[in-house]
């Protein structure tokens, strides 16, 4: 079976890290490179954290440095955006975990050049998994829309129809750069299938304390590392959301990309993103039931098979044998 060619655009970030761990281990994916973007942390942190993950898995691919700020700030010549979500992902962006970097994993080109050159090399074959603000993708389509129309699909973790986490109406990635979001869906969405994996579906799949304990007990060294990395993130969700676990948003976006049969109630609809309001900045305006016949530009799953999702997490991160052990233990508790 031909492997699926993938670029992961990311702002690691603890949940990005688990998504990248899954992608780097999955036999059906040919991850061509990571591109970093400012988001959870400033570009220095997100680029280095992506490099740490490639070093951890001794990967031969590279991370290509991307946008240092949101689209409009870049156009206004503003400098690097600093920490926006340190309170969620910790000082380093990976919780309390410290990982080394092999300098060889840093790509020489910038993210925009890498993305466009890769799509030109493989027209119609490359999928982009966007796990942070979509600034890099907006810069790519601004520079060369015709090449971006050659992308096979885009899966973007972000947004929400009925939920927010940066404000009551806005999700963090889309709040960070709403102009880029609106450019992406209006200019590219009619030509390239763009999946919006939003908070409505990600919050259905809480990775709970049982799941994390299982990872630590049965997942070997990687399971122990993930358990440690997730502590800071769980602490945030314990206090902010009252959860006994955490929502690993980007991991759901990755698992759903690999196994789209996980998603249920998929809407093909028009999505716009508010970029001209302080109060509603980043809100997704979605004609979910096509009442207004606006041009459809997004695929939006509103629910998922969570049992399937959790079993796939264990299989992709730790192997089928561990996943079978997980299924047995969950069944024994039901
Ligand atoms: O709102 C959740 C999203 O914002 C995730 O991608 C997380 O990593 C942050 O980037
Ligand atoms: Ca992210």
Outline the structure in words.
The chain has a single domain (4-333), classed as Alpha-Beta Complex (Inosine-uridine Nucleoside N-ribohydrolase, Chain A), CATH 3.90.245. The protein starts with a strand and ends with a helix. The protein is globular. The protein has helices at residues 14-25, 43-56, 71-75, 86-89, 111-121, 135-148, 172-176, 178-188, 199-202, 209-218, 220-240, 249-258, 306-318, 320-333, and strands at residues 4-10, 29-36, 63-64, 126-130, 153-157, 194-197, 206-208, 245-247, 263-273, 284-287, 298-304. With 334 residues, the protein is an alpha/beta fold. The chain has 14 helices and eleven strands. α1 (14-25) runs parallel beside α12 and α12 crosses α13 (306-318). The structure holds alpha-D-ribofuranose and calcium ion. The site of calcium ion (CA) has 9 residues, from α1.
